[in-house]
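Re: Re: token formats

Sure, here are both.
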Amino acid sequence: MKITRGLLVLGMLLMFGSVAFAQDDFPKIETSPAFMYIRTSPMLSNAFEVNGQTVNPQALQCAGGGGTIAYNFTSLIGIAADLGGCKIFSHTFQAGNSVDGSLFTYLFGPRITYRKAGKFQPFGELNFGGTRVSLTCNSSALTCINAVGTNSYSKNAFALTVGGGFQIVVSKKIYIRLVQAEYLYTRFGNNCALAVCSNNNNQNSFRLKSGIVLTW
């Protein structure tokens, strides 16, 4: 009788243990270093003003890197913090002046990951936060330098991303995030001389990320 009772208790422990293990069979924390590319929609209405200088991003492109850290409450729902910086390498500045620049984004929001498709895991997310653009003028033109008495300009703005992608499970600790494609909305605003400018102007961009995922 004692042996039977012991086997029954052991069976119940194993059953509840396996259920608990199944419920926790997903990474609590995911970190993801990644390559990042941003391209602004080629529309004149995306123009914005930075310290008196009009930025007309008809061909603004930016490449760099960043990373995310996500905490998963369940196998489906998590929350992520996304940081990234990139170098502007194609752009148009006021009066055709040449500039160097960089863009930094800091975003936070919920993420949904579907993990029941085996090694293929699609996900989607919505992030809110901000962005900062920094520009340095390389031209001797007075319109480029004399607006604020310097050749360096920076501005912060509200930012939002929405999109998703998919990752491939290589092992329990390592995934490959092949693609993460998102719409990037920024609201730098402006007060420039162009007819298309309005104080609440916004910019529409495409953001692409790819990298690895380390789980904990």
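Second one below.
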Amino acid sequence: MRCLLDTNILVRLALNSDPQHPLVQDAIRKLRENQIDLCITPQSLRELWHVLTRISSANGAGLSTATSRSVIDELLKDFTLLDDTPIIFNEWLALVSENSISGAGCHDANHAASARVHGVDSVLTFDISDFNRFKTAGLTLIHPGSL
């Protein structure tokens, strides 16, 4: 079984000061104990970089690029990176078209497309409602608090 870690999970994992950091650590530990392959995507790493390097007054972490690179390097060691492929783009285009997705929802659609193409069964996310529209893609949605 494989589980995709949503960007909001990675942000809380990367920021020790986040109040939900312990909850995310515990959820990841439990998934690993159940032999779940934890996966990340280039899209989630790009989104994470954006949050980590954005200034704190704009709701970012205000980290340097060097520190952000270290965070990304650690995640690449700890989790399975799913490749971006042209097939993912085609799947994404189908998902955004079929579900009439506009705006920022297109990023979640990219995660769902990557999961579908790579045979990922579930998504660990705080934003269950954002991913509900992709249940038809065969994804089980897991909130860290439910573990």
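The chain is about 50% helix and 10% strand. Strands lie at 2-5, 37-40, 80-81, 122-124, 140-142.
- S.
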